[in-house]
């Protein structure tokens, strides 16, 4: 019983520990309140600010990012809680000074600004813009707490409201701040974060001379990537509050009712929340700007969040030419090479934009070209028409430029060694499609050689199961009987060989001539029967007997009656024809 209880306790502890071992991605993805509040664009870098309910940062390797309709690849370089970075916040505070606001409310709004100024860090900045009948910059970002206090104490309310022109003034300050950072060559990871704050009752008095529309002011905030956080007086009409909230959310900001009783903490609480934001530094493969707005997507686990109204309108200048950093053979495939570029390029997927030489002479044709840009790897895969062999190669390109506003051309060519598959193997492989022709030529040459050789040696005869050249044929002798009459004759053989061949033959009683190997003399002649005819010696004379041959036997042009019982005399010098062979017999 105690043992089982111990196992249950152990399983409980493991499950408990497992709850705290979730990946940051999982924690971030499972948060129900994940929003992208801001994207500060300075291509090729984009600073993305994410608000999470749990205040945890997602691991940089666990987030995937993409921007619609651009084709660029994005790489998350870092992911940190904002307060852990070296960045500062520049608060652009917009204060409504119209007479539609009660005096006590107006005083509370000014005190809330001072409370925020007191709490921000040394690296942070705060400016104040007032809008009423006119729009003015009351205090710049370098004002001290004391200077700001004096300025605010002197501000008086006035009739009229230039609300949207005041909002435009925020974006003018943001652009000025960004231009200053560009001039000082401040890196993206050290740039200030610009945030707008507005304290107002959200009334625009149309007859007060305002010339900027709500749509124009909204677009100016979206184009600069500036979220606007609003604090609306509770005395404002519900319709105005709803309109203000909708406007603020389109900028990435939020809406709150201004509480005079919390004047010392309401803005400082906003500051605390922004310090807890997750900031992602994202690097784009290109610095190309676009006039139209895009959509940024972040994906972590099962969670995907979007930032709409993203404007890629600010970029670092780029005069650096792209280069080929390496050319490698793809595995053992000697027909495919991978060309790696130093940065994202255009037109690298055009097969006609490459020239590949071996030893400065042999040219390879690119039959297929594909290009990929992923995780800061920019590579073209080239499939060649022929296999590579070991040697020194040069890869030259044409019409390939980097993916920037400047479109810098690719710098120089690449030269280096490639292994290929070895010269002999490459030659062997290159002949592959011609092997049938080559084999036919070889067979023809061999047969022609055999034919010429046989012709030179007067054909082939088969004697005693052996093939013998015509000019080297020997007789086979057979003695039928010791008492048989013997006759020595000369056979001049022609027809089976190109030239005539003479054979000295001794007939002991009789000999059989035919195609069968057991004959006394036999020939490899398909027209000759196995046992074609016999020569017999009787009383010193020679006779011939046809042994029922298929094609018959002829003596001096006359056919011989078939049958071993029939004999015809053969005279000295007679001509005997059997199959394709002609004999002239003499003695």
UniProtKB/TrEMBL annotation:
Domain called VWFA: residue spans: 90-279
Highest taxon of source: Bacteria
Pfam families: FHA, VWA
Keywords from the named record: Membrane, Signal, Transmembrane, Transmembrane helix
Signal peptide (from-to): none
Cross-referenced InterPro entries: Cell_Proc_Reg/RNA_Proc, Cu-Rt/internalin_Ig-like, FHA_dom, SMAD_FHA_dom_sf, VWF_A, vWFA_dom_sf
FHA domain sequence ranges: 511-560
TM region positions: 434-454
PANTHER family recorded: NUCLEAR INHIBITOR OF PROTEIN PHOSPHATASE-1
Entry protein name: FHA domain-containing protein
Organism this protein belongs to: Anaerobutyricum hallii
Lineage: Bacteria, Bacillati, Bacillota, Clostridia, Lachnospirales
